[in-house]
Each structure stands twice: as structure tokens, then as C-alpha cells.
Amino acid sequence: MNEDTKLTKAKIRFAEEGRFLTGTTSTPYDDRVPPGQGLVKGFPVLDLGIKPNIAPEQWSLRIYGAVESEVTISWQDLTNNLPQTDIVVDIHCVTAWTHLDCSWRGVLTNDLMRLIALNPEAKFVMIHGSDGYSTNLSLEDFLEESCLIAHTMKGEPLDLDHGAPARLVLSTLYFWKSPKWISAIEFLTEDQPGYWEQRSYHNRGNPWNEERYGTPVKPAPAPAPVEMVEPEPLPARRKPSFWDDLKQFLS
Questions:
Q1: pLDDT in tens, 4-28
Q2: Domain of 201?
Q3: CA torsion 208→108→91→192, rounded to 10°?
Q4: Where are the alpha helices (DSSP H) in the chain?
Q5: Has residue 52 been placed in a domain?
Q6: Lowest model confidence (mean pLDDT) among 21-25, 155-159, 176-180, 201-205
Q7: d(Cα 251, Cα 202) in Å, to the nearest integer?
Q8: For the CA atoms of 38, 39, 44, 47, what is the dihedral angle to 10 degrees?
Q9: Which of 5, 194, 214, 222 can pair with 202 through a Cys bridge, CB separation 3.0 to 4.6 Å?
Q10: Could you give the CA distance from residue 36 to residue 178 in angstroms, rounded to a whole number?
């Protein structure tokens, strides 16, 4: 991964300042647009400044980690051999814009899982992009019913700005959790932070709970060894004398 770009540094500063936070929460059943979001007609383009130009026929998706055996998905698999699903969802970016009714076509992660023998200990997923980007998800979020590997957006093949040849689309979380130029899916037994999660973004990113930012998730340092010290015995209490009783009586 190259050094942080100006845009990346600005977004880190926004996280440190708590930019866009309103302090309110909602649910998708109460409000279609999450707290602090504004509607846009276009589709803003945000990335790390690296746009890998991969020919579709050269693209592949590696699936590895806590699985019985690795699986590789080809472009032919993604676009023809596996079940194709169309979804229309709203997209919510952590930078406070929302784009309504965006259509996508691709392979649902639930359909992809039919090809994978997952180890019982696998509870988390790391999604990797060809640009060096990564983001972590719980297995539950990865298997959300509309989550898919998309190759088509609004009826047209994905263009380079939006992650061609393929990207993840997970509309129930902020859109940094949907990596462009997806190249690998890694199943994990323990949670690990991705690119933005190491740079002050929230570990999950639920837009209705306004989970924009949070403490960077880093391995906790090993506790310092505690030296056991024998406590000093308390001084023996002296039995009150006659003069002690008399002083207390006269006071």
C-alpha cells in the first residue's frame, strides 16, 4: 500500500474531528435515508488514488483462509456459470451522501457460498481489492441477503471508476465496506481490521446507527506481568487501658 493520499488524509482528519456526526440513530423501517445523509443524483467517485485496469478475461477471484480448500472464480463463472441476481438498493457513503435506487447485477454471496466448504471456526471475512484496499466484515454481514459480487451497474458493465471488472455491493453498511476491484475473499477465525478500520473508521459501519468512526481496532498489547508482593501485617491493636477509658470519659 502506498502512502496515504491527500484525500485519504482528509478523510482521516474528518474521522478525528467527528465530521458529519449528528448524534442520532434510526432504522431502515423508519427512515429511508440514515441520519446525517444528503441525497445526490450522481454517484461520487472515491478511492485510494489507484485504479487497477484489469481486463475481464484476466480477472479472477481467490477464495481462501478458513476453508477446506481454496476456490478460484473466473470471469466466466461470475458472469455466466453462477446464478445471476438483480438488486435495486440505496447506497450510503460515510462522507454523508446517499444515492437512491441504484441497480446492480451479479452473484449473491449466498450463492457463492455453495462452492465453499467453510471451516466451522470461520466467523469473519476480509475482502481484498486489487488496489491494495481491504475491509473486514462479520460472516453475518457478508451473507446479508442482498450482498453480491457485482459486474453490472445500472444496466451497464462496471466502469473503471466504479470498480470494474467486479466489486462487492453491501448496501446495509456504509459503502467503504463494499470494495472496488475485488480480487480475494479471505475467511478468518478472528476479526482483523481493514484499511479504513485501521484509520479511525468504525469496525462495522451501520449507517442507521451512524457508525462512521470509532477507535482503530488494533491487537491489544500483552499485559505487563504483575509482581506479587506479600502485604505487610497490620500493627497489633493495643488493648485499651484504664487511663484510656478515663480520658475518653472525661473528654
A1: 677 677 777 777 777 777 887 877 7
A2: 6-43+60-217
A3: 60
A4: 6-17, 75-76, 109-112, 139-142, 242-250
A5: no
A6: 21-25
A7: 65
A8: 40
A9: 214
A10: 20
